[in-house]
Amino acid sequence: MTGSASGDRRLGEHYSRLIRELCALLFTIVSLSALAPMQRRQHAPEMSPVAVASMLLGASVALMLCGSVTFAIGVWVASLALLFSSGAAAGAGREGGEG
User: Fold this and answer.
1) Membrane-crossing residues (predicted)?
2) Rounded distance between C-alpha atoms, residue 38 and residue 36, angstroms
């Protein structure tokens, strides 16, 4: 059981690290767009509020699509598990009744 708990913990740490990196990336992009007009960097293009809004909209749509796909896969897996478990129970009932 300790191997499974260790694997779950590593998976959780992996997801936490990915979320931290994504938040840091978004924070960097948004903060650079806010600082660009003040510092007048020549190599960094200025992001308009519309660009920031469209970037956040794209991120939210991507998360919604991923969530929908995950939900659909979960429904299929649950349906198949229910189907096979009811079939196994019916088969076990027939075997028990004959013997």
Assistant:
1) 18-36, 56-84
2) 5
Q: Report the run of H or E that residue 40 belongs to, with start and end.
A: none
Within this chain, do residues 39 and 83 fall inside the same structural domain, yes or no? no
With 0.85 as the threshold, say if the pTM is over it.
no
**pLDDT digits over 24-56, tens only?**
888 887 776 666 555 555 555 778 888 888 888
Q: Domain range holding 84?
A: 48-99
Rounded CA-CA distance 46/33 in Å is: 6
CA distances from 38 to 42, 71, 86, 87 (A): 12, 44, 66, 68
